[in-house]
């Protein structure tokens, strides 16, 4: 490496962890610090593959656990507002939603995530969606999630939705 020039670092990390105590995502901070983030609580979608839209349609598959690939085209509305639903019960706490590789940005209503918390105590529901992914303080309750595709045309996107409890 020349003086004053930009360089790269390469680090190998080996985990021997049969207890799952390090389950979660690895993140590297700008200063190079490696963090193990909280476990992704986003519930997996079942019943895949599924086809959204028509002529011929957008096929949704799970490429690895919790990662979804959308490929194909549709000339009709994909109409997936209620086709990629999953749910999980969450404890009271502060939660945030995110995704790796947002297909069209985290504020898009063409492809993204919607979710609603239905409190165990029957209180008012709390929603997450484009421009409102948290963090939000939630009571314990049923957390209904949906990946939506609201577009026509060609699609070839991979998407990993995430739900984290941050306190």
Question: What does this protein structure show overall?
Answer:
The protein has 167 residues and is an all-beta fold. Helices cover 0% and strands 46% of the residues. It has strands spanning 26-28, 34-36, 50-52, 57-64, 67-74, 85-90, 93-100, 111-119, 126-128, 136-138, 141-149, 153-165. Strands 3-4-5-12-7-10 form a six-stranded antiparallel sheet, with no helix packed on it. 19% of the residues are buried. Mean pLDDT is 80; it is low at 1-5 and 16-23.
Notable traits:
four-stranded antiparallel sheet, disordered N terminus, six-stranded antiparallel sheet, mainly beta, 167 residues
Bin the strand percentage: over 45%
Biggest pleated sheet: 6 strands, antiparallel
The backbone outline, from C-alpha atoms, is globular
The N- to C-terminal Cα distance equals 43 Å
Q: Helical proportion?
A: under 10%
Gyration radius, in Å: 19 Å
One letter per element, helices H and strands E, the order comes to: EEEEEEEEEEEE
Strand order of the largest sheet: 3-4-5-12-7-10
Which class do the helix and strand fractions yield?
A: mainly beta
What is the strand tally?
12
Low-confidence stretches: 1-5, 16-23
What value does the average pLDDT take? 80
Total helix count? 0
